[in-house]
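Assess this today:

___
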Amino acid sequence: MNVRETILCIALLLAAPLLARENTDVIIMKNGDHLTCEIKGLNGGVLYVGLPYVIQTLSVDWSKVDHLESKQLFLVKMQDGSVYRGTLNSVETPAGRPMDLQVAETPQKKLVVDSAKIANVGETSEKFFQRFTGGVNFGTTYSKGNRSAQYNLSGLVSYPRERWAAQLGFSSNLNRSSGATASTWNQVSPSFIRLLPWNNWFFGGLANFLQSSEQGIQAQTNLGGGIGRYLKNTNRTTISVLGGFAWQNTRYSPSIVPIGTQNVAAALIAGNVQLYRFNKTNLSLNAVLLPAVSEPGRVFFTTNASYYIKITGNLSWNFSFYGNWDNRPPVNLPGSNYGTSSGLSWTFGPSLRTTPRTVE
């Protein structure tokens, strides 16, 4: 099975439907409206809910909610990086102040949090498969004139818990035209983070498996880890950085000039930016910089960026950019490969903030 077939199989597994939760949550609006629904999440000043008789997920203005209660389990992420797990119930709050929420992990263990300091609320579950979240992007174009075809497929699946999260991202691009050699890009990126005892600090580990025909890279493996911090962590903006060390192994395709396998030790600098705008748009940017320690002066850089516009429910249109650079590539090989794509995106699972390229 080749790389593209493997990635396609992963995408099909991601698209498997998850079990729905019960519609037993209660929301009372300030104008007196009463909704019995399924609360899916809270972010960007928007409370996302599902009704059994409405096909689409509804977006409710959080500032207009007067009362909320649910017996389902949620992960509540605060702006200081702390995370709590439990059922939700609003408590009496003085007039003019944002609603306070009670998070109850057990009947004996309860905590009241200020909703104005919440970065994100997402569903979780005691059931293993209901904790997964993620999404899939797909796009394709064809031109009869030069018999050219392009397709792109990318996605992400993550498993978030109270103090840690693991994820697996993938990306595949193929460009083919008459009289030219097909250009392929395949990337698989697993990663892991665990919150540290200090506010907004975390430990992160990441890996990257890349194949880039444009750069003559038959197989490239990156393994790294380090300490990271959330520079900004609100319900509209998330910015984080990570610093550490990495190891890279690259095997190049056979060429006129034989190139052996290269091993490089490097420093690791990674950044992630996510911007959200009231239920409509989402911008995600990930970048990894690897200044080589074993080859001073050599620098590797990889980035993925995506912009999403919501169409309806969990369906969005996206525009994406990917790129990989090496300022000292082997002789006769290009030092860069980059491209853009657009298509449709579909998210699944409890977190409506998760995009197919990145996760919190």
Remarks:
- The longest strand covers residues 217-233.
